[in-house]
Amino acid sequence: MTLFNNTLKAAQRGLTGLACSVSLVIATSLLTGCAGPQIADYTLEKPTLDLRQYFNGTLDAYGVFTDRSGKVVKRFTVVMTCRWTGAPGQETGVLDEDFTYADGSKDRRIWTLKRGPNGTYTGTADDVLGVANGEERGNAFRWGYTLNLPVDGKTIEV
Length: 158
Description:
Blueprint: H1 2-35, H2 51-54, E1 57-66, E2 72-85, E3 92-101, E4 106-115, E5 120-124, E6 128-137, E7 140-151, E8 154-157
Antiparallel strand pairs: 1-2, 2-3, 3-4, 4-5, 5-6, 6-7, 7-8
């Protein structure tokens, strides 16, 4: 009986240790998953994106605004007119956006973009809080900013 109890206790300790290890692996995976992709992950991806070439001339696009939970709060189409000026490596771009929202309302945003070193960009627009910051790597561009967006008679920051 003692041998059986000791074997059972050893097996329980082993299972407890295994359960802790599995829990730790799952927790680590979940936390790592929350971190999301990084712009550096795309450095070697092709074809290489050049924002100055992509945003040049007239472009049509569509998109959505979501709240923090991921719920769509506004859908839109946009016609963008883009142009760049300045010396290589120090270009300034103007991105003129004309939005039409699903509810029929219209809006306009004019971005002033400045190219910085190593694929970085900054941008300003009237309804953007502070300065937007972006970075291109490989075939991707990450653009971060906070926008004052009118929704249902109030303004929310998205």
